[in-house]
Amino acid sequence: MARAVRIHAHGDPAAVLRIEDVSLPDPGPGQIRVRMRLAPINPADLNVIEGTYGRLPSLPATVGNEGVGEVVAGAWPAGTLVRPRDGLGTWCQELFADTARCTRLPDGLPDEQAAQLGVNPATAWAVLHEFGPLTAGDWVLCNAPASGVGRSLAAVCAARGLRLACLVRRDGEAPEGAMAVPEGREAAKALKALGAKLALNQVGGDSAVTLAKALAPQGALVTIGALARQPLSLPNGAVIFNELRCCGFWVSRWYERVQPAVVEGMMVELGGLVRSGKLHLPVAATYPLLETQRAVAHAQRPGRGGKILLACAG
Ligand SMILES: NC(=O)c1ccc[n+]([C@@H]2O[C@H](COP(=O)([O-])OP(=O)(O)OC[C@H]3O[C@@H](n4cnc5c(N)ncnc54)[C@H](OP(=O)(O)O)[C@@H]3O)[C@@H](O)[C@H]2O)c1
């Protein structure tokens, strides 16, 4: 039996999260049993609990879309560090999975960073991979730059000599080395002077409109999030006269369609950035699994300054 954070219905996390014991089968060929170490609470997890995410598990289900765990039995050597892919439910002491649904993590990373590598850094990396080519010196735009995705984008851009300009709501929000442009009437004009061909939109609403207006002709506005919970409405002039390309991107689908070698290459590059200290995703607090309710309440608070993690043994 293993302790797990489960839902039997969608709704407010405070009402629907339960701690339960689940039994796990012994792994067969191509399967592994994973002892989870740390799992983050991401916006997507809250959307799954609420029932608003793009893909929902059949209920009852264990919650959690990523984390770092260690193989304890089955097809891969004991001790291998893995990231179970989404849908497997990582907020638990142990889980059971097909190896095809797990990604091996690079060795030598602090658990706090390894636990966060497969979603936010991967998304930043994959957007640059899919919506390039970009060359050193090119500008990239983004909003919500202090998010895990924003910090990761800054690190990958810096490593490739790309320049990042961020739409910010307050001082100190942009990662070190990135240009900060305060939200407001002058923001689109200031950003447009940079001639960027790619903008990463995590927010929607007015913030996305600013990025859309700021792109160079035929630039791509890539939407990955809707933090403002407002619709994405685009300025007609930018779409028509600037031939704006408006695209969505979802890393869950990307993992399904991309060749394993691309994922391996990405993990090597991201792992190197973590080891060299160039990519560091801050952690605001870590809670034992038994205190998931408190952890989720903390994760929902604005201005928390870093990710909330669950220590899966507890
Ligand atoms: N499509 C994909 O494949 C994919 C993959 C990964 C993430 N995402 C999405 O990307 C977004 C970021 O995820 P994350 O885990 O990196 O976030 P995170 O680390 O939890 O950080 C969220 C950040 O967004 C800021 N924020 C919240 N509401 C905002 C608003 N209305 N306007 C501007 N900034 C706002 C927060 O600022 P405060 O400090 O003020 O709270 C915080 O800095 C989410 O929408 C997530 O769902 C999508």
How are the secondary structure elements laid out?
Layout: E1 2-7, H1 13-16, E2 18-22, E3 31-40, H2 43-50, E4 61-62, E5 68-74, E6 81-84, E7 94-98, E8 102-104, H3 111-114, H4 120-130, E9 139-143, H5 148-160, E10 163-168, E11 179-182, H6 187-192, E12 198-201, H7 205-214, E13 220-223, H8 236-241, E14 245-248, H9 251-257, H10 260-275, E15 283-288, H11 292-299, E16 307-311
Parallel strand pairs: 9-10, 9-12, 10-11, 12-13, 13-14, 15-16
Antiparallel strand pairs: 1-2, 1-4, 3-5, 3-7, 3-16, 5-6, 6-8
Helix pairs in contact: 4-5
Shape: globular
Structural class: alpha/beta
What's the CATH class label of the largest domain?
Alpha Beta
Q: Which percent range describes the beta-strand content?
A: 25-35%
Outline the structure in words:
This protein has 314 residues and is of the alpha/beta class. The chain has 2 domains: 2-116 and 281-311, Alpha-Beta Complex (Quinone Oxidoreductase, Chain A, domain 1), CATH 3.90.180; 120-252, NAD(P)-binding Rossmann-like Domain (Rossmann fold), CATH 3.40.50.720. It is 30% helix and 25% strand. The chain is built from 11 helices and 16 strands. The strands form 3 sheets. Strands 3, 5, 6, 7, 8, 15 and 16 form a 7-stranded mixed β-sheet that branches. It has a 6-stranded parallel β-sheet with strand order 11-10-9-12-13-14, sandwiched between helices. Helix 8 links the parallel strand 13 and strand 14 (245-248). It is globular. The structure holds NADP nicotinamide-adenine-dinucleotide phosphate (NAP). The site of NADP nicotinamide-adenine-dinucleotide phosphate (NAP) has 26 residues, from helix 2, helix 4 and helix 5.
